[in-house]
Amino acid sequence: MSVSFVCPTCGNQDPQYIGYLKGKPYCRRCISFRGDEAEDSPLRPKNVILDLKYSLSPEQKAISDGVIENYRNGIDTLVYAVCGSGKTEISYGIIGECVAKGLHVGFALPRRDVVVELYWRLKAAFPHNKVVAVYGGHTEEKVGDIIILTTHQLYRYPKYFDLLVMDEIDAFPFKGSDVLVSLFRRSLRGHCVMMSATPSAKIRKEFSQKGHAILELHTRFHGKPIPVPKVSIAPLFIKYFSLLKRLNEYRKKGKPCFVFVPTVAKARSLFHFVSLFLMRGNFVSSKRAKRAEIIEAFRKGKYSYLITTAVLERGVTVKDIQVIVFGADSKIYDSAALIQISGRVGRKVGATDGDVIFLADKKTPSMEKAIKSIKRSNAFLPGVLRKHSRK
Ligand SMILES: [Zn+2]
After folding, report:
1. CA 140–ligand 1 middle distance (angstroms)
2. ∠ CA 302-356-236 to the nearest 5 degrees?
3. The domain 230-376 is classified under which CATH number: 3.40.50.300, 3.20.20.110, 1.10.565.10, 2.60.40.10?
């Protein structure tokens, strides 16, 4: 059976992932991506009235204009923007322009809880347009002026999107999934805008080629620097003591705190220990039931600390949050993860500063790299933009 077979869905031609049924080849790589596809009916030009609660900073505006210009010139853009820079708002300009022209607009994200959150934000920003959310278990309505979807659902939209915006391109499960990357390419018939605070070297290289551009934004929307992590090296017992001491101080000051830990088991065991000494805390992980309710209660001030795995690494904004990474030297933390975690702090106007503490037995190259990268971004003054593009 040496006939070469290329999967029409995901482009796979690796024989390892090709099965045979009654002598006919089929693709095993994308077999879980089967279901109704969206109807590719033309849209009409729409009236777009953008409703923003506050205006873009001059830096955001410049990047937003750059994205629009690139799109008009047929160039794909990577927006490389620090955590808390207001990446999402940067995409509103091009989204509005494409919706007004009646083009097919999609906004893809790897994780479903972020899809739901973004759905509400875009609904508020584009009150006169039809915004739909598409994710596992929520796929009845697939067509609208703006379609917010998980990267998983892209298989429903072959050669569909004139504009496809994608955030968190370096996040699981999109990161490292060849099939999702293939589905992303397949769903695009126009141009894309990729966004990340921590794009991989590979992606940056890809976007420095012809027909692509990188726009860098190093300032947060409020213009204040990103808090630089402080490293605290301590042996085991001292580490626990140091954690309790800091949590107690934050509690007295009324500052909420996230404690990041490398594993689900560690989240549970550390919580059992800390809760012996400090009341009003909880823990979350991907395995924890009622995670959303616990996070919501935390936001409302019911808890003073929350022990968490990587589930809160991205996309979460809590006013005046402090962050401790307990075991920052764990090998699960690469520099991108540490940058994202540090990026939780100081995001809100009126609370632009805060602590990021790396508690560890030793300093790792990832910790050093994360700190260096944050300092590098902070060295850019507001108003300085970097732009590389090739037509
Ligand atoms: Zn396939």
Report:
1. 24
2. 90
3. 3.40.50.300
